[in-house]
Amino acid sequence: MNSTGNPYVPILVIGAIGFGFAAFSLVAAAITGPKRYNRAKADPYECGIEPSPQAAEGGRFPVKYFLTAMLFIIFDIEIVFLYPWAVTFDKLGVFGLVEMSIFIATVFVAYAYVWRRGGLEWD
Amino acid sequence: MNAANYLYVSALLFTIGAIGVVVRRNAIVVFMCVELMLNAANLAFVTFARINGNLEGQVVAFFTMVVAACEVVVGLAIIVTIYRSRRSASVDDASLLKR
Amino acid sequence: MSIFTAPVLNYSLLAPILIVLAGAVLGVMIEAFASKAIRPVAQLSLTLGTLILAIAQVWRIRHQSSLTAAMGSVAIDGAAILMQGAVLVIAILGVLLIADQEQFTVLAAAVPGSEEERESLESGQKLTEVYPLTLFAVAGMLVFPVSNDLISLFVALEMLSLPLYLMAGLSRRRRLLSQEAALKYFLLGAFSSAFFLFGAAYLYGYSGSVSLAGIRDSVVGGSGNDVFFLIGIAFLSIGLLFKVGAVPFHAWTPDVYQGAPTPVTAFMAAATKVAAFGAMLRIFYTAFANAYWDWRPLMTVIAIITMLFGSFVAIAQRDIKRMLAYSSIAHAGFLLAGVIALNKAGLDASIFYLFAYGIATVGAFAIVTLVRDSTGEVTDLKRWAGLGKRSPFAASLFATFLLAFAGIPLTSGFIGKFSIFSAAYESGNKAIVVVGVLSSAIAAYFYIRVIVLMFFTDPADDGTSVVIPSMLTRITVIAAFIITIFLGVFPAPLLNFITSLAYFIR
User: Is C175 or C168 the better-scoring residue by pLDDT?
Assistant: First the structure.
C-alpha cells in the first residue's frame, strides 16, 4: 500500500470496484441473458410469497413474521460485541478468547431454547 | 463542522420522540418513538465522545444498541400478545385498569 | 495507537452476580431440554440453590469491601454488600411465593378465553419460565446498586426491568388486566429509561468520563459546562424516580401492582425498590454529593409531594392491591428523605428501611395471595370485612405487616421511620420531617381502617376465605413476620451491622 498517498484513496478504489462490478453485472446480464417474459416474472418480487394487495387478516402481518424478526434482531445485534474483540484480539489474548467463548455460549443457550421450543418452525 | 450542531440534532430527535410518546395512540408507534429517544441519546454520546476526545461514549453507544434490541424484542412480544387478545394496539383501548 | 491491556475482572468479588446469571442460563437450558414433568421441581430447586449460594458468596466477601471490580465498573463496598444481601433475601422469599403456580397462566402467548388456553390449563402443566426470568431480574438488581459507571447503571437498569415487564403479564386470572399491566409497565418503563440514558449522555458530556468517580471529580473541580450537568442530573433523576415510583412519575405503580400476578407484585415491589434506591443512594452520595445545592431543593419538593400524595390517595382505594401500591408510593417519599439527608445516618437509615419495608411488603402480598373465593384472589377491600373472625391467624399476620407500614412501635417500620426522620432532622431539613410525620399519621389512618374492617366488622357470606397456604408460602409469611417483629424489638444487631459496613467508596 502506498503509505505517502491520501489514506482515502483505497476506499475510493474499493468503491469504484464495487460500482464497476454492479454495473458490469447488469450490463452483462442484459446483453447475454435470454429474454423470455411471462406473467410471474412481471410480478413484483416479495420474498417468494404470492404478492397480494393486502396481507391476510385485514392488512396485518401474521404473528410469525414478528417472531422471526425478533429472533433475527436478537442474534444479529450480538455481533456488535464481536467487532471490538476482533480488533483487539491479539492484545486480549487468552482472556478475550475465554470471555468471548462464554458470551457466544450464552447466545447459543438462547438459540437452543428457541429451537427446542419450536420457535424455528414456520407453521 | 461544529460538533455542537450534532447536539442540537440529538436534542431535536429526543424531543420529537418524547412528543410522539405523549401524543400518539398506537402502541407500536409509541414504542418506535421511545427507540428514537434512545438513538438521540446515542447520538449525544457519540458527539460527546468526539468533543471530549475519548472513546467511552462510543462504547456506551454499542451497549445501548444491544439493550435497545432486547427492549424491542420484549416490547414486540408484549404488544403482539395484547393485539391478539384485543384486535387493537391502541393504548387508549387498554383502559381496564382505570378503575 | 493507545496501549491496550486485558482488563482484570476480580471474579471473586463478582461471584454473587455471576452465580445468579449462571443459574439463570442453566434455567433456560432446563426449559429447553428437561421434560415437562420434572421442570417445576428442577427449576425451583435450581433457583433457590442459586440464590442461597449467592448469599453465601455475599457473606464471604463482606470484609473484602471497599474494592472495585471489573476495572472500576462495579464498586464492592460495604453499602453494596448490604444491598446485595437485602435483594437476595427478598428474592428468596419472593421465589417461595412464585412457586405457588396457581397464580400463573400456563401458556402466556395464548389468547385469553381461547380453546388453546383452556387446553393448556387443563393439561395441568406449569409455567416454569418465570424462574429464569426471576433470576435474570435478580442479577440486574444485584448489579444496579453496585454499578460505578453509567454503562453498568444503564445495562443493569434494563436487565432488571425487561424480565419484570414480562412477568407482569403472566397472571392466570384476569388475563386482559395482566397483559395491560405489562404493556403499561413496558411503555412507561422504556420511556423513563430513555430519559435516564439521555441524562447519562449529558453527564458524560459534562465530565468527559462515564465513571461516577470521574463525574464527582468534575463536580468538585467545578470544571465543565454547568448546563450539561443540570440537564444530565435532571434527566437521570427522572429515570431513577420512575423506577422507585415517586410522584409525578408514579402513574404505572397502581396499575402494575394490581394487574401483575400477586407473587410477582410482591417480589417486584420489594426488590426493585431496594435496587433502585441502592443505585440512587450511590449516585447522589458519591457523584452528586458536592453539588447538593443544585438538586436538594427540588428533590425535597418531590419527596414531600410523594409522601402526601401516596398517603392521601391510598385512603380512597377500594382494592387492596391498589392500596398497597399507593402506600408504596408514600414509602418511596420517606426513602427519598433518606437520600436527601446526605449524611451517614441517612445512608444507614435508608438501608435499614429498605430491608424492613421489603420484607414487610413480601409478607403483606403473601397474605393477599391467600384470600380467595372460587374464582381466584379477592382483592376488593369490602370483601375483606370480618376476615379476622374467620381466620384470625392470617388476619393478625396481615395486621402486623400493616402496622409495620404505618410505623407503629415494636415493628420494624417504626425503627426505620424513626431513623430516617432523625437523619433528615440531623441534616437540618425540618420541613421534610414535619411533612413526613404528618403523612405517616394520615397513612396510619387507612392501615388501621383495614385492621378495623378485618377484626370489628361482621363477615359477609360471599365465599371469601383464606385458603390453606402451601408449605413454601407458609415459610415466606412466617419468616417475614418473624423478621418484622424481630427488627422492631431488637433492631440493634442489624443497625450496628449496617452502621459498621455502610460506606461508599469514592
Answer: C168
Report the number of distinct structural domains present in chain C.
Answer: 1
Decide if C465 is inside a domain: yes
Using CA coordinates, name the residue in chain B closest to A68.
Answer: B73
3-state DSSP of chain A:
CCCCCCCCHHHHHHHHHHHHHHHHHHHHHHHHCCCCCCHHHHCCCCCCCCCCCCCHHHHCCCHHHHHHHHHHHHHHHCHHHHHHHHHCHHHHHHHHHHHHHHHHHHHHHHHHHHHHCCCCCCC
Task: Name the residue facing C28 among A93, A96, A109 (closest C-beta).
Answer: A109
Spans of all domains in chain B: 1-84
Range B1-84 has CATH code 1.20.1090.10: no
CB-CB contact of B29 with B20 (8 Å) = yes
Across the strands, what pairs with C465?
Answer: C372
Taking CA atoms, what residue in B is nearest to A66? B76
**Residue range C257-307, pLDDT digits in tens:** 999 999 999 999 999 999 999 999 999 999 998 888 889 999 999 999 999
Coil, strand or helix at C319: strand
In one letter, which amino acid is C233?
Answer: I
In a domain, A121, yes or no: no
Q: Which amino acid is at B12?
A: L
Q: How many domains does chain A have?
A: 1
Q: Which residues contact A6 (CB under 8 A, 6 or more apart)?
A: none
Provide ipTM, 2 decimals.
0.94
- Kindly list the partner chains of chain A, i.e. chains with 3 or more CB atom pairs below 8 Å: B, C
Q: Can you give the residue range of the structural domain that contains C158?
A: 15-501
